[in-house]
Amino acid sequence: MLAxxxxxxxxxxxxxxxxxxxxSAIVANLFWVMVIGGAFIWIGVIGTLLFAxxxxxxxxxxxxxxxxxxxxxxxxxxxxxxxxxxxALWLMPGLRPFATPADASMTVEVTGKQFxxxxxxxxxxxxxxxxxxxxxxxxxxxxxxxxxxxxxxxSFWIPALGGxxxxxxxxxxxxxxxxxxAGTFRAPxxxxxxxxxxxxxxxxxxxxxxxxxxxxxxxxxxxxGVSGEGREAFLRNGCGACHRVDGxxxxxTIGPDLSHVGSRKxxxxxxxxxxxxxxxxxxxxxxxxxxxxxxPAFGALPAAEIDAMAAWLKGLE
Length: 317
Ligand SMILES: [Cu+2]
Description:
This protein is of the alpha+beta class. The protein is 35% helix and 19% strand. It folds into 3 domains: 22-94; 107-219, Immunoglobulin-like (Sandwich); 224-315, Immunoglobulin-like.
């Protein structure tokens, strides 16, 4: 009886039951067939139980009981399970399709790290656009993902679009997804990977193809504010030892690419809203926001310097 209330939590940005992709739609259909079918069977079983209780004084004949067991206990479950097996096998070809060469115009490489996501868009001309903590894809086009890990096992999962795929060190797993609706969805890391596992997520943004193309072209260039004020502080304080900002000499890949960090939906891999204040608090003490995060705290710097870097980074769109 509580099921409808429990399910109220299942709409929105991180729900496999609010599908915005072809694979998640199949999974959601199978779920509803099983839930509704299960509810009917439950009603049938409880009905039989009540019937048996009401007939305690006048038991059915041995032959009647035998027929009930044969049909209700053997034939019905066998037929139902056979039907479910056939239904699931019939759905399977639509799950996990590989992108055809024509579809796979773009491969998105995502590498899991404790506790963030390195992202790179590989285009047919061989060029590579680096990003982090956000994955964008065009609606209506099948996108091929190449999934790896640099440290421990993580799992890539955009519930609104499709199923999970593990990210395993030393392996390259493939997954293809087709978004059917534009929107921003939340994607949590789906394999325990350390202290801040629950604080490791990213946003998946499905965009109209023309918007997507314009966005990707902009990402391939340095951000407009790249020569702004906070730049000096950023370079002086050694942030470039771990981060890359396109258009500056910061070119490291130990931490997330910050070339367009200002245009991301969130800061800290899906944890904080992307505001100047949030960026400043992250720089001052990442470990307070994400225990065990692999970035040192810079809280010893003058607040004005942290604020200048935060303002500069927020401006990199
Ligand atoms: Cu993880």
